[in-house]
């Protein structure tokens, strides 16, 4: 059951730390951020902040 799964260490971190990690991932690859959010949808709130968008690498 999806509702009874254990939280990952990343999900247990404070939101500002999650945002910083996602921001650093965004510098390298859009695909990596997309894959991270697909694997851990609960991080979407931490990814939806201006610093992540500013750091997002949109170049191929």
Tell me what you see in this structure.
With 60 residues, the protein is an all-alpha fold. It has one domain. It has 5 helices and no strands. It has helices at residues 9-12, 15-28, 30-39, 44-47, 50-55. It starts with 8 loop residues before the first helix and ends in a 5-residue tail after the last helix. The mean pLDDT is 85.
Can you summarize this structure?
Helices cover 63% and strands 0% of the residues. The chain is mainly α and 60 residues long.
Task: List the keywords.
single chain; 60 residues; mainly alpha; 5 helices; 0% strand; globular; F-box domain-containing protein
Summarize the helix and strand pattern as letters.
HHHHH
Percent of sequence in beta strands? under 5%
Mean pLDDT: 85
Shape annotation: globular
Report the helical percentage. Answer: 55-70%
Cα-to-Cα separation, first versus last residue: 37 Å
Main sheet overview:
none
- Tell me the Rg in angstroms: 12 Å
Number of domains: 1
DSSP helix count?
Answer: 5
User: In terms of structural class, how would the helical and strand content be classed?
Assistant: mainly alpha
In total, the number of strands is 0
Organism: Brassica campestris (Field mustard)
Protein name: F-box domain-containing protein
């Amino acid at each position: 059951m999806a509702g009874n799964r254990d939280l990952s260490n990343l999900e247990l971190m404070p939101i500002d730390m999650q945002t910083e990690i996602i921001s650093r991932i965004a510098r390298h690859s859009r695909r990596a951020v997309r894959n991270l959010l697909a694997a851990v949808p609960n991080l979407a709130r931490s990814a939806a902040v201006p610093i992540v968008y500013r750091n997002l690498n949109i170049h191929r």
